[in-house]
Every structure is written in structure tokens, then in C-alpha cells.
Amino acid sequence: MTGAGLLATLLPGCGSHDDDHSSYPQTVAMGQQMIQQAINDPEEPVAGISVAMLKGNTVFWQQAFGVSSVPAKTAATTQTRFNIGSVSKLFAALSAAILQDRGLLALDTPIVKYLPTFTMLSPEFAQITTRHLLSHSSGFPGTNGRNLFTFAPVAGYAADTQAELANTHLKHLPGELAVYCNDGFTMVEQLVLALSGQTYADFVQTNILAPLKMTSSSYLTSVPSSGSFSYPFVNGTQYQEFVNAYATGGLSSTPTDMMNLAQMFLGGGVFQGTRVVSSAGIAEMGMDQTTTLTINPAPDFHWGLGWDSVQQPALGAAGVLGWEKDGGTAYYSTEFFVVPKAQLALLITGNSGYDARGIAEALVLSALKEDGTIATLPPKVGTTVAPVASGPNIAAAGGIYGNSDSPLQVFANADGSVQLNQWNGKTRVWKHLGAYQYRSDGWWASSADPTSSYQFTVVTGTDSGGNPYNFRYLMKRVVPGAGYAYLTLPLGQQLAPLAALDAAWQQRLGTQWTLTNDAPSAVPIVVLGNEPAFLTSLPELPGYVLYGNEDLRYQFIVPLEDERGFMSVKVPGNFGRDLYEIRFAPGNDSTLTLGSSIYAKL
Fold first, then answer.
1. What integer pLDDT is reported at residue 320 of this predicted model?
2. What phi-psi label fits residue 380: left (phi over 0), alpha (psi between -120 and 50 degrees) or beta?
3. Which residues 6+ apart lie within 8 Å of 237 measured at CB?
4. Which end of the chain is more exposed for a tag (fewer CB within 10 A), N or C?
5. Are residues 420 and 472 in the same domain?
6. Which of 261, 253, 215 has the alpha carbon at shortest distance from 93?
7. Domain for residue 485, yes or no?
8. Predicted pLDDT of residue 5
9. Strand order in the sheet with 82-83
10. pLDDT grade, residue 6 (50/70/90)?
């Protein structure tokens, strides 16, 4: 999940704790210092952060820092609930595993068997399985943005998403590649309803939250009448955030409650003597789902079912297998780690603006060292760049690269370095990112930024439909979190110029559009002021239409016909997520539909 990332103004304070530090005193002391630094950061202070760590069946540390309400100066406690965003995806995967245990669902059976009302414009939709939904490989465009984050509950999001998918194509074939996809998990809500007769929220409450005694966890389907919550404070106003995509990111919880979930994972599906899900279901969630992908230019991504990684990179650098899931909403950031063999777990959550992954990696590795699981911490990477070397000719790699965020421009400088620019949507000009020299390790890098380097990767083959493909990706290697491992990201796909736009599309260039059918409580409406979107083109890449705004970001579309534009890229990972088709009513250019959002021409 990703949102506006708007932060609360902050008041410092340690908050409350109820724990036994005797097992891991060094880890707890380090964690307290790191979190307090984030709370007191003068550049970007964070209102509240809460954390819990588990060893075996014992929670050895639980503590809250800062405040839950800025104007009331209410101290956060271990009972304060936070929106944990995409960590909620694990409950969707567990729901599917429970349904499979009951013989109601098979992960590799097409979902149309269970949900015959499901349809899309691409005939290959009939191949989509529950495994595809849970491993980001369904081919859905990405995220239904309509009423995703709101300041009042909005019902019907999952049904709206299914209706939206009926009017769009797949962006890639099912199982072809894996690109982060929220709508796949939202469709699990529809499967649960069809197979169990219960709403998703009720099914999870009955079959997961209640057996796990997670009494401070629920989906905010209505305004809560009780409980302690963290509240965003935005532009002088306090709100409560609602995430209406329940399966993909809607759970409100506490780190202490989440340690009960961790115990169940560590117990192979059993919590305090009660079996919640089969051990086979837990094992299936923890299996690497990327091994059968056709296109996978970043093999250090190891998606599980629900998990972002079943081979967490920093832990892998220490020779330890760990599972990781992160979560972000418009106002909160969360990290959840489970280390099966070490019987260790952590959840940290708080208002956006702190490095949740960095703190989580540092604390889990510290605990593994403190209890003797590892002898030493792994060495950190990315502190220096490799020596300059003679580089390959990049003439073929030059040009424009598209993604779900903002176009990139690549060309060779006279001195042999690679120039990277990024299109700035606000100013509508190219922003200079930097010049990068070829290095002996095979990456283009700059000594000014040793934590980022670039490479070009070409992927060729034939897809499952018998169609040949040839994609060139701009790859970015970064050092996230605590700095113990590289992560390789496909940043953009090279796009070839097309035939000039026809008259119908030419006349739309330069037009602006305003969203008309979001709820009045939707975050983009309340906070961003319903910023207009626009349609334009770039002279460097004829034949494409560029659309977006700061909320949607900026994407290229390819005209399919006079009334419809199609998604232009197949970028795995995160930078090909949340793509959209756009369509106009026949003979009527006054209304534009993007997903399930309707825009009117200004």
C-alpha cells in the first residue's frame, strides 16, 4: 500500500511499556534509542511508534513511544491501535489457506470456478488462480484508487473493484511476472464471501482473530465506539484513517496482538493448543512463488503468499531465513518479521516518516546475535563504489523508459558516462538525476551516491500465448533498511516510438480533468484538494499519451482505439504497479473513466 505519506506534527515522549527485557537487554536498549531518535527527529518528527518482539511464546518487549493524539497530547500506549496497511495481506493468504483446508478452494484452480461473476476484457482472465492473486502475479492493473483511503468508512470497495476489473484488460498474462498488486488481495474478499457466505471482515474475525485472541484488532467497517487509536493530524485537523480495501490493507491492530499471529506462524498453524490453519498452509505461504515466473529480471525478490519476501535479504546476508511483510497507508508505516527456526518475531508500526525497515532489520539481527543464533552481524554493503572500468556501448539502451511513477530519460554523455533524467510532473520538464560511470562490478554508479547504481537488462522469450517478447529494463540497485543487503529494482521499461497520435487523441492533449465520484471523505479530496489530472505528450516519445497528477503519478498510455488507451509497460516489482486504462464515452470527450474513477473535463 502507498499513500500520500502525510505526517502528523509531533510531540516527544517515551509512552508506555510492559515487558521483560532480561532476555535481550542490548537489543531493547538499542531499539529504544533508535525509536526515540525517530520520534524526536527535528527534520521529520514522528507522532507515535509502537513495537513488540517475541521469542518462542514469550513477548519480551512491547513499548509505545510518542503520542496517539497530537492536539490532546495523549501518550501512545501498548493498547493504541495503528493501521498496519499491507501487513493485512497475510490475513487474506491465511483465509485462502483455511478455505483450502476445508476443501472449499484449491490454490491452483481458476477463480472463475468459485466466482462465476468475475470477468475481464482479456480472455486470459479465466486462467487466474488464487495463487496468482496472493503472489502478485494475476496481471490485474494494480489498485482501485477510488475511496481507498478515507476519513469515514465507505462500504462496497471489493464489489466496486470487481466491477472495475470487468471493464479493463490484463496488463500481463497470469503468472508471467510478479508486480505488486493490491487488487489481487481485494478479490480474495469476493472469494471468501462466495465460498463461506460471510463477509471478509466477519470471516477473519471468526476464523483468525478470535482463535488468536487478537481482541485489539479489527477492520474499521464503521466508526469505532471504543478502543484506543492513533490519529493522523493533518494541516491542523485530527482525523481517523479508514482503509476500505480490507484484505489488501485494512486491519487496525497493535504489535502485541500481532505477536499472537507470529506465535501461530512459528507454531505451524497452532496457537496455544488450538489449530487455526494447517501446517501445510503455513508452509505454502512461506514458499518462494517466483520460481515459475516467465519474466523475472530481479531474482532477489522472493514473494511468498502474502509475504513480500520469504528470504528476507538482510537476514539472508547473515545466513538466516526470515519472512517479511511491510505495510504503508496514507499515514502509517509497518514492518512485520518472522524468523521460523530462531522462533523470533517483531512488529513495528507508527505514523509515516521513519525508517521502519531499517529499525526492524537492525533489531532482529541484533536479537539473533544476542541469543547466539549468529556469531556476528553481516558486513554492510554499498559504502563505496567499485573502480571505473571500460564500459559497453549503450547506444541501444538510450531513450525513454516508462513505469507507474514518472518517465525516465537515458542517453550517453561525451565522456562515456550515462546520463539519467526524470520527468517532473509539476514543472513538466526533465529533472537531472546524475551522470553515472561504468564500474568494474558491472554497474553504472556515481561516487556522489554510493548507495544507488544502475544497469540495463534485456529479457527475451516467448510467453504462454506463443507471443515473442523483448524488453529492456533500467535496473536500479539500492541498499535499503539497515544496509546489509542489496535490492535490485526494475525501474522502468524502454519504450519504442510509435506512429503519430490520430486526431481524436491529439485534440485531448493539454486537457485537464477533475475527479467526480470519490466520497467527500476521501483523502485526495480532503487533503490534496482534488488536484486536476492532465493529458499531455512528450516530443521525445511520439505516439504515447502521458497522463496523471501528484496523486496518480505519471504514466504513458498507448491508444487502442479512439475511446480507449491501454497500459504501456510490463515492469515487475513495484515500478509497474497501479497502472490504468483510460476510456471515454463513445462520441463524448467530456468524461474520462480511469479504473472505477470518473473524471470530468475542466
1. 98
2. beta
3. none
4. C
5. yes
6. 261
7. yes
8. 33
9. 82-83, 251-253, 218-219
10. very low
Contact 291, 273 (CB under 8 A): no
Q: pLDDT of 415-456, one tens digit each?
A: 999 999 999 998 999 999 999 999 999 999 999 888 899 999
Residue 126: strand, helix, or coil: helix
- Domain boundary pick from 471, 495, 519: 495
User: Cell numbers of 286, please?
Assistant: 512461506
Q: Which distant-in-sequence residues (6+ apart) come within 8 Å of 307 by Cβ?
A: 90, 93, 285, 286, 323, 324, 325
Asked if 524 and 572 sit in the same domain, the reply is yes
Closest alpha carbon to 246 in 211, 220, 226, 209: 220
CA distance 259 to 498: 53
**pLDDT, tens digit, for every residue of 37-53?**
999 999 999 999 999 99
Residue 284, domain member (yes or no): no
3-state helix, strand, coil in the chain (%, to 5): 25, 30, 50
Which residue(s) pair with 82 in the sheet? 253
In total, how many domains does the chain have? 2
Q: What is the residue-averaged pLDDT of the chain?
A: 94
CA pair distance 325, 559, nearest whole angstrom: 37
Structural domain including 548 reads 503-601
- CA distances 99 to 110, 203, 409, 526, Å, are 15, 10, 47, 39
356-380 pLDDT, tens digit each: 999 999 999 999 999 999 999 999 9
Q: Rounded CA gap, 56 and 316, in Å? A: 21
Q: What distance in Å separates the CA atoms of residue 105 and residue 98, rounded to the nearest whole number?
A: 9
CA nearest neighbour of 247 among 83, 95, 80, 82: 95
Evaluate whether 222 touches 185 at the Cβ level (below 8 Å): no
Position 13 pLDDT exceeds 60: no
Per-residue pLDDT tens over the stretch 15-30: 555 455 568 999 999 9
At 144-174, the pLDDT tens digits run 999 999 999 999 999 999 999 999 999 999 9
Report the alpha-carbon distance of residue 579 to residue 568 in Å, rounded: 9
Give the amino acid at 284: E
Q: State whether residue 130 is helix, strand or coil.
A: helix
DSSP code at position 277:
S
Residue after which a domain boundary falls, among 473, 495, 517: 495
pLDDT at 148: 97
What pLDDT score does 551 carry? 87
% the chain with pLDDT above 90: 91
CA 455 to chain centroid, in Å, comes to 23
pTM over 0.70: yes
How far is the C-alpha of 198 from the C-alpha of 188, rounded, in Å?
Answer: 12
C-alpha cell at 191: 472469494
CB 134 within 8 A of CB 184: yes
Do the Cβ atoms of 191 and 150 come closer than 8 Å? no
- C-alpha torsion sign, points 110, 113, 118, 123: positive
Q: Are residues 457 and 510 in the same domain?
A: no
Residue 132 burial (CB count, 10 A): 25
Nearest to 211 by CA among 150, 165, 273, 304: 273
**Residue in the structure block whose three cell numbers are 476464523:** 207
Which range among 93-97, 282-286, 490-494, 584-588 shows the weakest confidence by mean pLDDT? 584-588
